[in-house]
Design goal:
By secondary structure, this protein is mostly helical. 68% of the residues lie in helices and 0% in strands.
């Protein structure tokens, strides 16, 4: 086995993300990442303690793709931009979606995103418990919508099954499913977010 070389966290994250993108999240392991990097498994442990730490690095790398300043404007518009950046980053790496919420406390990029969202809410007049509820509502929507899109997309088999239900028994459910199939993932996400923002008065 070649002599271990010096690695950065970014190199490990990039290798792990490439592996996940190609082969799926279940294939992620210390051995697989080490192979991706051309080193032995034990050599990788010099840089990261376990798969959990690798996952956190991957989440940070994915969310970093959505970073950047937000142009001045109404609070709802700014929050929509911030939310959509997470959606776009996640749609590029759908296998990482299950890790986003689990590791959001360990990802500097996630923490910066949270600080940006809270800054907009604060500037919009949210304080104390009201800010907590507003932030959690947005967080629940964004990460929940990503999970739903991954596991039950409107263009998927589940919607097709619902659309084919007998109209005499499930008239509203079947009709709703048929309408659902006309929505793109982007429309579904944005229109749902609009409902949440209106509920918050933004």
């Amino acid at each position: 086995m070649p002599r271990p070389r010096s690695l950065t966290s970014a190199q490990i994250a990039t290798a792990a993300l490439g592996l996940v993108d190609r082969t799926g999240l279940d294939a992620l392991s210390m051995r697989a990442v080490a192979t991706e990097l051309g080193m032995g498994t034990m050599s990788l442990y010099r840089y990261v303690s376990d798969r959990n730490e690798v996952e956190a690095l991957v989440v940070d790398l994915v969310l970093r793709e959505g970073e950047g300043s937000v142009s001045p404007g109404p609070a709802g518009q700014r929050l929509s931009v911030l939310a959509d950046r997470v959606r776009i980053a996640a749609s590029t790496h759908p296998e990482v979606v299950p890790l986003l919420l689990t590791h959001r406390h360990r990802s500097p990029s996630s923490l910066r995103w949270g600080e940006s969202v809270l800054t907009v809410l604060t500037e919009a007049g949210f304080t104390g418990r009201h800010r907590v509820i507003a932030f959690r509502s947005l967080l629940s929507y964004v990460f929940g919508a990503l999970q739903v899109e991954r596991h039950g997309p409107l263009a998927g088999a589940g919607t097709a099954v619902l659309a084919a239900l007998p109209a005499e028994e499930f008239p509203i459910l079947s009709e709703t499913a048929r309408q659902a199939r006309t929505l793109s993932p982007e429309q579904e996400f944005q229109r749902g977010l609009d409902v949440v923002l209106r509920g918050l008065g933004l």
